Automatic annotation (TrEMBL), chain A:
Keyword Oxidoreductase: yes
Family annotation (Pfam families): Pyr_redox_2 (PF07992)
Record-linked InterPro entries: FAD/NAD-bd_sf, FAD/NAD-binding_dom, Metab_Enz_Cyan_OpOx_G3PDH
Source superkingdom: Bacteria
FAD/NAD(P)-binding domain ranges (all copies): 4-298
GO molecular function annotations of the record: oxidoreductase activity
Protein name: FAD/NAD(P)-binding domain-containing protein
Lineage of origin: Bacteria, Bacillati, Bacillota, Bacilli, Bacillales
UniProt keyword Oxidoreductase present: yes
Keywords: Oxidoreductase
Annotated organism of origin: Virgibacillus phasianinus
TrEMBL record, chain B:
Domain of life: Bacteria
Domain named SoxA A3: residues: 5-86
InterPro entries cross-referenced by the UniProt entry: BFD-like_2Fe2S-bd_dom_sf, SoxA_A3
Organism of this sequence: Virgibacillus phasianinus
Record keyword Oxidoreductase present: yes
Keywords: Oxidoreductase
Keyword flag Transferase: no
Protein name: (2Fe-2S)-binding protein
GO MF annotation, one: oxidoreductase activity
Amino acid sequence: METDLLIIGGGPAGLNAAYEAASHGIETLVIEESFSMGGQLRQQTQVLDKLPKQFEKQRGTTLARTLIEKLSTLNVKVLLKHTMIGTYQDGRIGVSNGVKTIPITAKRIIVTTGAAEEASVFPGWTLPGVMTIGAAQILMNREYVQPGKNALVLGSNTFSLEIVKQFKEMGVTVRGIIESNSELISKHEKIIKSIKKDGIPLYLNSYIENATGVGEVQKVTLNHNGITEEMNIDLVCIGKGVAPILEPFEIMNCSFTYQIRLGGWVPQYSISMETSSPSAYIAGNAAGITSMGGILLTGQLAAVSVAESLGFLNEKLATEKRASLWKELHCIETTADLREVFNARMALIKDYHEEANLLPSSLFDLSLEEC
Amino acid sequence: MDKSTIVCRCEEINIDEIESAIKMGAHTFDDIKRITRCGMGPCQAKICTTLVQRIISEYTDKPLSDIGPSRMRMPLKLTRIGVLAGNKESSSVISVFSESASKEGETKND
């Protein structure tokens, strides 16, 4: 199979990249390992604000449909239930649908594999009933299953707190939010206020000593400032954040760097979202954990750069477009309290430009006043 | 924490086994994997990589940025061997195994 552009991953970043690329006339192929497109948006029922300006404020599930519908009139081919399993020596991508392996020749590749949730170890964490907070969200919003009745949430990032809010609506009693640090990880004042108003106990400087039960989790021992407390619990949700999925990048020989603010190990990339592997680009959470706005904009940025490199956009137009997208990304990531993410992203790009002897970009000096 | 706590669910490797491997000189996830089989089960280290890296970091007092990502290999997902080599259409896919395929095998299939 041959295509101008292959996009690996049909989540928000991949879909937005496909739209941008195909609007310039680029023949685009999207492969998605799941049975439908939309990625994590498919279970995000919360209203997403701070989206890029071409999108209205909407629920995640609606946004997934919006993105898919936008592609319907364009030259975009989608292969569902297809997974990248490797590369050939000549650079072709090996894609499997479970029956056969298909080599795909693409002039350019955008990898938008997203991120995976991190686990946390404590005695009993392998018991049924202990899951990641994202798994609980999938159970509620996609499968319409109540994940448990009495829950403990381990970790206090904004995503965890959002799900805690939803637990209340779904009749799940949250018996506490456990945070090992001395303050909450989330800085989202509105959610924190509402959690406190609901009277959900916040255990700072705390950790789970163990979870026990026969066949499933039944009891959890909590250590709160050195004092232990036993609770009857049937659901423990681990919300320790997410890290970029790196396998495809490693197979394509991309170089990596460590940026804790971006989720740990991340592929290196330039201001054009190009990785160190020839003709491979990156976007979305794989390029550093961010908000939906950042996910969509990096997808668009990668596609603009692909359009330029394939001659569908001239250098001047592409540079202008990139500059305006970076400014928008800067504004979104700064106002959404992701300033540290944006700074880490810029530091990564700057380092990479220096290491790879790429031209420095004027975009490195984006200042706050421009928002 | 109880040293018998499982870290790699697929292969049932516990903290004690990982710490013993570190004592033997293991200092990356891949070292631990070679010694203990940690990360070699069906999930292919998707859950335990960062957990093990954190244990190494705590045990050796090194920052996580010094521990390095693990080596990821093809095929990236659980794949039936027949999908790679079974039918005629995909017989050229032997190079997916380029790391282990012999020179002769490659030319024969190219």
